[in-house]
Specification:
294 residues; Na+/H+ antiporter like fold; mainly alpha; 14 helices
């Protein structure tokens, strides 16, 4: 996972400028909707799913942890696969990470009795593993553009390869953990949780297709690292961490195909808009206008 996070953050930094990241974040309405989706509706969804499925307490705790932890490092890569707005994805990821560091210590003690969260431990891991490599990439892009242009494709391929290896390793090393949840409805809860995140993000993602895709992917994909830090600090039952890992696996298995589906939809829409034969003729437009006027 370390190789994936570092290579993907460096790659994103080398391919963008600070201005490109900040411009989408100036849409105040969209940012408010993103915060509502990730820090109001997702914790609520986690709570409701846990109650409806009557999950065992450790599994319910894990779902609540994930509901409050947002800003996943996978988001920019998923956005790239889906051909969505990459700059918005990076900006949104950074925003959600920063809010998560302050949000979890405030909210989790209210939702889970006896939980204490150290924001320094969460923040330090996010800063050193994600924000620092991203900042280095942005600096290299700004000062050494030729070097950035040469290094970015290599790092992009490395991050994709690392992601594939990560998924394979997670599946191989956690087969027993997944099987241990058989009969607990943990896998079903994971599927419903990821699906709920995708739906919430899509509905609140605004009118533009590329930002809706980012919101859907970014809301569904949770900050696994932050959830594992808090879970490991506060709970002795190993099923809490097992459930976090299972949600991570289910999320990747669901969101990778979803990202490719979004890319195909985007390509089809682009082809229609660029093909004159698909556009209505002037005569047809006039007829349609006359009909509407009747």
């Amino acid at each position: 996972m370390l190789a994936f996070v570092l290579s993907s953050m460096l790659s994103m930094g080398l391919s963008l400028t600070v201005a490109q990241i900040l411009v989408p974040l100036r849409n105040f309405k969209l940012i408010v909707l993103a915060l509502v989706a990730n820090f109001v509706l997702m914790p609520f969804a986690a709570f409701v799913i846990a109650r409806l499925l009557r999950l065992d307490q450790p599994l319910a705790i894990a779902l609540v942890l994930l509901g409050t932890a947002s800003g996943a490092p996978f988001l920019p890569l998923l956005a790239r696969i889906s051909k969505a707005n990459l700059a918005f994805a990076v900006g949104l990821m950074v925003l959600l990470m920063v809010v998560t560091v302050g949000f979890m210590p405030l909210v989790l003690p209210l939702m889970l009795e006896g939980v204490s969260v150290d924001p320094v431990k969460i923040g330090s891991s996010l800063v050193f593993l994600m924000l620092l490599p991203l900042a280095i990439g942005l600096l290299v892009r700004a000062r050494l553009s030729r070097l950035a242009a040469k290094a970015q494709p290599f790092l992009s391929r490395l991050s994709m390869l690392s992601l594939v290896l990560l998924i394979v390793l997670l599946l191989i090393t956690n087969v027993q953990n997944v099987l241990s949840l058989y009969g607990t409805r943990g896998v079903l809860a994971s599927i419903l949780f990821v699906a709920a995140g995708s739906g919430i993000g899509w509905l609140l993602g605004g009118r533009q297709y590329d930002t809706r895709g980012v919101m859907a992917l970014g809301t569904a994909q949770r900050n696994i690292a932050a959830a594992m830090v808090v879970g490991g600090q506060n709970f002795k039952d190993p099923r809490v961490i097992v459930m976090v890992v299972v949600v991570a696996i289910v999320g990747l298995l669901m969101l990778m195909p979803f990202a490719r589906y979004l890319a195909k939809r985007s390509q089809l829409a682009s082809n229609r808009s660029s093909d004159p034969s698909k556009l209505p003729s002037l005569e047809q437009s006039a007829v349609d206008g006359a009909r509407r006027g009747l």
